[in-house]
Design goal:
Helix content: 25-40%
Number of helices: 16
Pfam families: Glyco_trans_A_1 (PF09318), Glycos_transf_1 (PF00534)
Strand order of the largest sheet: 4-5-6-7-8-9-10-11-12-13
Oligomer: single chain
CATH class of the largest domain: Alpha Beta
CATH topology of the largest domain: Rossmann fold
Number of strands: 23
GO molecular function: glycosyltransferase activity
Strand content: 25-35%
Keywords: Transferase
Organism: Niallia alba
Largest sheet: 10 strands, antiparallel
Protein name: Glycosyltransferase
C-alpha cells in the first residue's frame, strides 16, 4: 500500500540573503510540494521579522506558497491569550524625549543616541535606516548596562535581555507577545553563555532543562497532527532533536551539507566535535543523504557502509545561457560569503600573481559577511584596489557568471559547492581548490575547468592566467562546462529524492 508521506524540514532560520544551505532547502521544498499533499518548514531561531521574510520568499517565488512555514517563537507568541488586542502603543522613531538630553553616537553607521538626565547616562537607543526603533539599552548610575529591550519594525517590544552588571552579557531573556505578555523566559549559563533553563507560560506552564528541549517539545507538538512525517535534519544542530522525537510513523532523514573533518579538513584530520554525536547515532536514521560520493566513502571508512546511505547531488538551477561574445575576457568572479571558510584572502593574494601577468585583469567578489573590512584592508595592502572589487550579495548570479571569463573557488572546505555548478551551467569555467567536498565531483580537470591543490595560490593564478590569455582554451572549457546541465539535471534530482523518501 502506498504511504502518503509528509516532508518536514527542521532547521534554524530562513533569510532573504541566503547561503547554500538555505538555498538547498528551498529547492528541495519546492520540489517535494509537487509530489506530496503537504510540505512543512519548522524554524527555531528568534526572528522578529519572520513574517516579512516569509512573505518576501513567497512573493518572489523563491518558496512555493503551498509550503507551510512555522517559526517556534512566532508560533508560541500567537498562543498568548487575547494576543490580538494591541494594548501597547507602538514606539516608532521617537528620538527626543521630554526631560532628557540626547547625544548622537557618531561612531555608529545606524542612527544611535545616548540619553542623559540630570547629568546621568540612563539609556541608549538605536534605530534602523528607516528611522524605526531597533533596541533600547538601559544603564545603571555607574554606566553598566542592565537591560536591552528589542523591538520589531512596528515598534512592539519582542524581547528583553537582562544583563550581568560585571561582564555586560545577558543572564536572562524574556520574550513578549504583541499585547505585552511574556510567553517565554530563557536563562543564560554563566560560563558557557548557552541558553539553558527555559520556561514556557502560555497556554500552560512548562519548564525545560534547555532551550533545545523546548524546541523539541514544540516540534513534537507540530508533528503530532502530521500524517507520516519525514523529518529532515539538514545541519548537525538539529540531529539530536530529530532523533529524540517520539512521533508515530516518523521517518528520519539526515542530509550532509558540509565537511566533517577538522583542520586541515581532509582524511589526515580528526572528526569535528560537532559531528561526533551524529556519527555515534548515524545508524538511527532511516536515510542518510550525501551530496558527494567522496564524502560517502570517507564516512563509510569511519562507521561502515550502511544500507541507509544514498548520494543525491544538488541539481543545477535553471540558468539562462549566455553567448560567448557577452563575457569580459579579463574578468574573474567569486560568489561567496565573506567568512573564513571561503578563504577569500587566498583568492585576493592569488590575484596578485594574475595581475603581474595581466595588469588589467579584474576580480569581482560578490557576497556578505563579517570579514568585509578585513578583506578591504588586504586589497589595499596589496595595492589591488584597481583590480579587485568587493560587491554586494547578488540574486542575479546567472548574469554575474555570464559576464566573466571564469570564476574561482578557494574554500578550505565545502559540502558540495553549488557556485561551481551555477557557473558551469552558463558556460563559465571554474578554477577551484580541490577541497573536500564537491569540486572533484563536479569539475573534470582540464576539460571544463581546473582543480588545483588547496592553498596553492601560484597554481591557481597560473590556471586563471591561462583562461584569461588563451581564447581557445577558454572557449573549449566553456563548451564542455555546459554539460553540467545534463550531468546534474533537475529530473535526476527529483527522481532520487522521491525514491529516497518512498523507499
Amino acid at each position: 500500500m502506498e504511504v502518503n508521506y509528509t516532508p518536514v524540514f527542521i532547521f534554524k532560520s530562513l533569510n532573504i540573503v541566503r547561503g547554500g544551505l538555505t538555498k538547498a532547502i528551498l529547492t528541495r521544498a519546492n520540489t517535494l510540494i509537487k509530489y506530496y499533499n503537504q510540505v512543512y518548514i519548522l524554524t527555531l531561531s528568534f526572528q522578529p521579522d519572520f513574517e516579512d521574510i516569509l512573505q518576501e520568499l513567497y512573493s518572489t517565488g523563491r518558496l512555493d506558497k503551498r509550503v507551510q512555514v512555522f517559526n517556534c517563537f512566532h508560533d508560541l507568541s500567537k498562543k498568548v491569550g487575547d494576543n490580538k488586542v494591541d494594548i501597547k502603543e507602538p514606539k516608532n522613531n521617537i528620538i527626543k524625549e521630554e526631560g532628557l538630553y540626547e547625544f548622537i553616537d557618531k561612531g555608529n553607521e545606524l542612527p544611535s543616541y545616548r540619553y542623559y538626565k540630570n547629568g546621568v547616562y540612563i539609556k541608549y537607543k538605536r534605530f534602523d535606516k528607516e528611522g524605526r526603533l531597533v533596541f533600547v539599552d538601559y544603564m545603571s548610575e555607574s554606566r553598566n548596562r542592565t537591560r536591552r529591550d528589542e523591538y520589531d519594525k512596528n515598534g512592539y517590544l519582542v524581547c528583553s535581555q537582562f544583563m550581568d552588571p560585571i561582564n555586560n552579557s545577558p543572564r536572562l531573556k524574556s520574550y513578549y507577545a504583541k499585547n505585552g505578555k511574556c510567553y517565554m523566559t530563557v536563562w543564560i549559563d554563566d560560563y558557557t553563555k548557552k541558553e539553558g533553563r527555559s520556561l514556557l507560560y502560555e497556554p500552560t506552564c512548562h519548564e525545560f532543562k534547555s532551550l533545545y528541549k523546548l524546541f523539541t517539545f514544540w516540534v513534537q507538538e507540530k508533528l503530532e497532527d502530521i500524517e507520516n512525517p519525514v523529518a529532515f535534519s539538514d545541519s548537525r544542530f538539529s540531529d539530536g532533536l530529530v532523533l529524540d522525537l517520539k512521533v508515530e510513523n516518523i521517518k528520519r532523514v539526515a542530509v550532509l551539507h558540509n565537511n566533517h573533518y577538522s583542520w586541515p579538513y581532509n582524511t589526515r584530520a580528526d572528526t569535528k566535535q560537532t559531528w561526533k554525536s551524529f556519527l555515534n547515532r548515524i545508524h538511527e536514521y532511516d536515510k542518510v543523504i550525501f551530496l558527494t560520493n567522496d564524502q560517502k566513502k570517507d564516512i563509510g571508512t569511519l562507521v561502515g557502509n550502511l544500507p541507509t546511505f544514498d548520494v543525491i547531488p544538488h541539481a543545477v538551477p535553471e540558468m539562462k545561457v549566455a553567448t560567448v561574445e557577452k563575457y569580459n575576457p579579463k574578468l574573474v568572479v567569486y560568489l561567496a560569503r565573506f567568512e573564513s571558510q571561503k578563504r577569500i584572502d587566498e583568492a585576493i593574494k592569488a590575484f596578485k600573481y594574475v595581475v603581474k601577468k595581466i595588469p588589467d585583469a579584474q576580480l569581482h567578489i560578490y557576497g556578505f559577511g563579517p570579514q568585509k573590512v578585513k578583506l578591504e584592508a588586504l586589497i589595499e595592502e596589496l595595492n589591488l584596489k584597481k583590480n579587485i572589487m568587493l560587491q554586494e550579495f547578488t540574486n542575479a548570479a546567472s548574469a554575474v557568471y555570464q559576464s566573466a571569463s571564469c570564476s574561482i573557488l578557494t574554500s578550505d572546505y565545502e559540502g558540495f559547492g553549488m557556485v561551481i555548478t551555477e557557473s558551469m551551467a552558463v558556460g563559465t569555467p571554474v578554477v577551484s581548490y580541490n577541497c573536500k567536498y564537491g569540486p572533484s565531483d563536479i569539475i573534470r580537470d582540464g576539460i571544463d575547468g581546473f582543480l588545483v591543490p588547496c592553498r596553492n595560490k601560484k597554481k591557481l593564478a597560473e590556471k586563471v592566467v591561462k583562461i584569461l590569455s588563451d581564447d581557445d582554451t577558454r572557449n573549449q572549457l566553456s563548451k564542455n562546462a555546459l554539460e553540467v546541465n545534463e550531468r546534474f539535471n533537475y529530473q535526476k534530482y527529483e527522481e532520487r529524492w522521491i525514491r529516497a523518501i518512498n523507499s
